[in-house]
Amino acid sequence: MDRILEQLKAGVRRFQAEVYPLQAAIFEQAAVEEQAPHTLFIACADSRIDPVAITSSSTGEIFVARNIGNLVPAYGEMLGGVSAVVEFAVTSLGVRHIVICGHLHCGAMQALLDPDAIAKMPTVQRWMNNAHAAFSVAQILHQRAEQSGAHSDLMQVLTEQNVLLQMQHLKTHPSVAAAMARSELTISGWIYNIGTGEVRIAPGGSSKFEPL
Description:
Layout: H1 3-19, H2 24-32, E1 39-44, H3 51-54, E2 62-67, H4 81-92, E3 97-103, H5 107-113, H6 122-127, H7 132-147, H8 154-170, H9 174-181, E4 186-192, E5 199-203, E6 210-211
Helix pairs in contact: 4-9, 7-8
């Protein structure tokens, strides 16, 4: 018998027996009403990241998109799943806020620093092209900091610059640009520290991440 499948099935049984009964009314209401999330949360696919838990959200409150490196290709560059999610969330669901959440100790960012790590993954290599500009900026900022005698963690700088870059990419999507022009949508960039639970946020238009 597949041990992992059995573990997953055991988890479902616990959900049905312990979790669902406590929130039955919420789930029953969600089943008959159209979803109306207030936020699109774009996060890394890293298994240690749980957007619902981080935001203490309830069923139906956030629309989640996850991919390697929490990347958002600029509109027209790689039309596909991420672009479709953004368009659907903004145009059909009418979300009022979009979060792009990066995190420390991100394998995708590490791959930018060490391309050999994904040498046998051509699809991942092409996908990471969407973050190369962040790598270029991070290198310059890191070098300047080091030259001035200030401590600089290249990995952290890269993680931050990647989130800021993806926020720029997000604004190239027609649905996003239009909604922001109508003052119906705002965006923010987040950095999540898995080990401490700390979240630092850069509101749209800011390049500085401030802790909550």
